[in-house]
Amino acid sequence: MKVLLGITGCIGAYKAAEILRGLQKAGASVRVIMTRSATEFVQPLTFEALSGQSVIVEMYDRPNYAVIEHIAVARDADLLLIAPATANALAKFAHGIADDFLSTVYLSNTNPVLIAPAMNVEMWSHPATQANLKTLRERGVYFVDPGSGYQACGEVGVGRLAEPEDIVKRALALFSTLPSPTPNDLAGERVVITAGPTVEDLDPVRFITNRSSGKMGYALAEAAQARGASVTLISGPTKLQPPKEVGFVSVRSTREMYDAVMSKMDESTVFIGCAAVADYRPTNRAEQKIKKNGRQGITLELEATEDIIAAVGAASRHDDRIVVGFAAESESLLNHAAQKLKSKNLHFIVANDITRNDAGFDVETNAATILRRDGTSFELPLQSKRALADAVLDEVVKTRATQKP
Ligand code: PMT
Does the Cβ of 327 fall within 6 Å of ligand 1? Predict the structure, then answer.
């Protein structure tokens, strides 16, 4: 476990020494980055002595620029932990400002980020800070929220750095959900994944669609490719770039997605239906823009679309293809997911509770329950969509193992 510990300038900076020690006791190696203001509270020497590694403060004070150091430093860690983080640091992270080493590392970092904020109660409750926290949470940053009590400034309220042992515990819990070094356990599998929404046109300018961003399906494609599978991603309209080295088919309507899936079916060994497919489309698409007819309402007539995964499930009854569905539910999650598992002839289904605001549609994180054919189930706790994708693929690997003679 390699942790990059970022320390920003506030009275709680001295507690970072305890955090560093706690992480080391759990077996982590810790590299420290301090902002210039943090060094006003604690000397870098303290952290150099404790970590056994040089502490980075300035952007341009390193002797070796053969590598771009902020990128190299970020790549060489498993977790970026910032404790304590001031209101100023949160604002920079939320707005992509990179004007010192720590904020530049934050921007070039692709590993999970855990932040323990600390600040005066008024700064904490200021709408600007709360908006920055919301932005960062939506981008998948994890937080250990500050505690309440007497503050160095003499005020009482929320803003005190969380206890070092709680911060260490949270960092260790995060480690346990991180994907382990990528195995090659999907080599030989040909995986077809659907992602994103489908779009059903009413007329040349209006359409019916849903909130799917494609993030979950694209994460699955990236993870399956990294684990050695040959991957085809069939996607409705999204703002995402398809992962490198993944076969990509862009579609719009459910009919187009159905045709694309069917054309790849024979060569596939695993099918994962992650797309939020429209269940209905207008019975007739108007050739011209539908005109307003005074103040009278109009009635839209809709017909059922093709059920893509049910067709794949039916076609896979007599072969070894593994068929995995997702279920996005706003009520009776497990009951509805169990019905879909059975009626669509799936090997397992990933049930998404879409009433949570940190899971499901158009967020960076997800939490789900996997329901298997044999009636067993288990929960996947809140984690990045990429980590959850790996957990879903672990289940594909287990399912394949049970088929082997
Ligand atoms: O794209 P993101 O913003 O990252 O959000 C991810 C997600 C919430 C879209 C994803 O995690 C998810 O839950 N996908 C399934 C959404 C859905 O439409 O579920 P459903 O319960 O309506 O459909 C059940 C299953 O049948 C799904 O595998 C779906 O792809 C499939 N289906 C549904 C209807 C249809 N006509 N054809 C299908 O193949």
Answer: yes
Among 93, 84, 82, which residue's Cα sits nearest to residue 147?
Answer: 84
Angle between helices 215-226 and 385-403 (to 10 degrees): 60
Is 146:172 a contact under the CB 8 Å cutoff? no
- The ligand 1 atom nearest the CA atom of 211: 3
Q: Is 70 in the pocket of ligand 1 (CB under 6 A)?
A: no
Q: Which of 225, 313, 226, 221 is nearest to 274 (CA)?
A: 221
Are 279 and 181 spatial neighbours (Cβ–Cβ below 8 Å)?
A: no
Given a contact cutoff of 8 angstroms between Cβ atoms, the answer to whether 101 and 57 are in contact is: yes
Q: Which two tokens stand for residue 298?
A: 């109009």
pLDDT in tens, 161-187: 999 999 999 999 988 777 666 789 999
pLDDT in tens, 102-143: 999 999 898 899 999 999 999 999 999 999 999 999 999 999
Instruction: Please confirm, yes or no, whether 274 is among the known catalytic residues.
Output: no
Question: Of these residues, 67, 68, 72, 153, which one is catalytic?
Answer: 153
* Alpha helices by DSSP H, 11-61: 16-25, 38-41, 44-51
Q: Rounded distance, CA 375 to CA 177, Å?
A: 25
Q: Going by CA atoms, what residue is nearest to atom 18 of ligand 1?
A: 276
Give the pLDDT band of residue 74 (cuts 50, 70, 90). Answer: confident
**Which of 209, 212, 342 for mutating ligand 1's site (highest number of atoms within 8 Å of CB)?**
212
Distance of alpha carbon 198 from its chain centroid, rounded? Answer: 21
Which domains, from first to last, does the chain contain? 2-176 (3.40.50.1950), 190-403 (3.40.50.10300)
Cα(88)–Cα(128) distance, rounded to whole angstroms?
Answer: 10
